[in-house]
Amino acid sequence: MNEDVFWELIAKLDWAKTGDDEAVIRPVVKALAKRSVEDIFRFHDLLAEKLHAIDGEAYARNIGEDSYRGDDEFFSVDNFLYVRCCVVANGRALFNRVLADPTAMPKGLEFEALLTVPEEAFSQKTKGDEYPHLAEPDFETFANRDGWASSR
């Protein structure tokens, strides 16, 4: 699994099924489940790398109404993660644009379902085995210390 294959899989998301997240991710899950277990884990790690790369204050301040406004204001760490998922889910071009320009972050959009793709693919592949892989790097909000250096 390399970057190109990762983005080819992401491109399989079926946006015609918007409103039914399981249906949107189904083609990716199905295609990933046909690959090796190692590829499923690598897909998860590549996803984690992308989410980690755009975990930072500059990105969080540009997600619209729910933007980060400082430590004294409420900020949903989960929502910010789901917005970052939306960036990745919308493909390589948007990811690269956002990476270069945090003001290009989507406003008021999220796609939490992307996080379930590796586990669902693994479950299909192994007929229900428990998912054993912990993706690296940590992609939870505030995990990218360099991205939050000025505010933390």
Write the layout of secondary structure elements.
Blueprint lengths: L2 H8 L10 H13 L3 H17 L3 H4 L16 H13 L2 H9 L16 H10 L26
Helix pairs in contact: 2-7, 3-7
Notable traits:
single chain; 152 residues; mainly alpha
Short overview:
The chain is built from seven helices and no strands.
Order of helices and strands: HHHHHHH
Q: What's the shape?
A: globular
Helix tally equals: 7
The profile of the biggest β sheet is: none
Q: Strand-residue fraction?
A: under 5%
What is Rg? 15 Å
* Proportion of helical residues: 40-55%
Number of domains: 1
Round the mean pLDDT to the nearest integer and report it. 97
Task: Report the end-to-end length measured between terminal Cα atoms.
Answer: 35 Å
Q: Looking at the chains present, what oligomeric state does this protein adopt?
A: single chain
Which class best fits the helix and strand makeup?
A: mainly alpha
Query: Which regions contain 5 or more consecutive residues with pLDDT less than 50?
Result: none
Number of extended strands: 0
